[in-house]
Design a protein that fits this description.
The chain is an alpha/beta fold. Helices cover about 30% and strands about 25% of the residues.
Length: about 270
């Protein structure tokens, strides 16, 4: 990756109308319908954006949208990228670098995750307070990373305290249960074994998923304030583990979606 690649993609999107955005949003599982609340000014398929990866997950769209939401200019990533699709960590996070180059000042991320903390239940939302990177690498581990920012990026507080405080208050005002916890990112796409769930609990994880952490690391590298919320779609009890049911996971994410949309819209209005 080099500065020229970033410039080519950024210039292309500006020519298509992606100008002066304030907020970027990664629409993971559980937030796809936020698009219906956006006054769309322009949209483009990932396939048509120079240097962009393509989303290969069947329940992820692959579009970049720009418009107005709650009075703010917003870019939405409708669909994200994962290690388990065969992409590198640099490819996965390339869109975050583009959003930053276009001018966003805040980044909001959603995902689906499994609950390791058994006090948390299916359908709950969890605000990420910290994370554990178990993906075996870093999106900052490339030769010329210093061209883009400080190589040794500090991660003592990866999630923006101000946005976390605001969304917590919004949840309380709307009687929405918003858990708080530590998210562990694994490679996937296989789900975890009973022993792996026990290990994740021992090391301090409250939830486990296959995304988000690379994007958050790059956001911190870019000094871009970031917030992330998980929809907890299954309960990972190693003593009562059932085979994974992907349609059920998608259904639970869909049921939790209105709560997530309420939180994100109110947060956008107040940042």
């Amino acid at each position: 990756m080099n500065i020229k690649t970033i410039e080519i993609t950024t210039s292309f999107l500006k020519e298509k109308g992606f100008v002066n955005p304030e907020i970027g949003i990664v629409l993971g599982t559980g937030l796809g319908q936020l698009v219906n609340h956006l006054t769309i000014e322009c949209e483009i398929n990932y396939a048509d954006i120079p240097n962009f990866p393509l989303s290969t997950v069947e329940f992820h769209s692959g579009k970049l949208l720009f418009g107005t939401l709650e009075g703010k200019k917003v870019i939405l990533m409708q669909g994200r990228f994962h290690l388990y699709e065969g992409y590198s960590l640099q490819e996965i996070t390339f869109p975050i670098r583009i959003l930053s180059a276009l001018g966003i000042k805040k980044l909001l991320i959603s995902n689906a995750a499994g609950a390791i903390n058994l006090n948390y239940k299916k359908g709950d939302l969890m605000l990420l307070d910290d994370h554990i990177n178990l993906q075996g690498g870093s999106p900052l581990a490339f030769a010329n990373v210093s061209d883009f920012g400080e190589r040794f990026t500090d991660m003592c507080a990866p999630y923006d305290e101000d946005m976390n405080t605001k969304i917590t208050a919004i949840a309380k005002q709307n009687a929405i249960v918003l858990r708080k916890g530590v998210y562990a990112a694994v490679v996937g796409p296989q789900l975890e074994t009973r022993a792996e769930y026990r290990y994740l609990k021992i090391i301090g994880a409250d939830a486990v998923g296959m995304s988000t952490v690379p994007e958050v690391i790059v956001a911190n590298h870019l000094q871009l304030p970031v917030l992330a919320v998980s929809v907890l779609t299954d309960e990972c009890n190693p003593d009562d583990l059932k085979p994974v049911n992907i349609p059920e996971i998608i259904a639970i994410a869909g049921e939790a979606e209105p709560k997530m949309i309420t939180l994100f819209k109110a947060l956008i209005k107040n940042i």
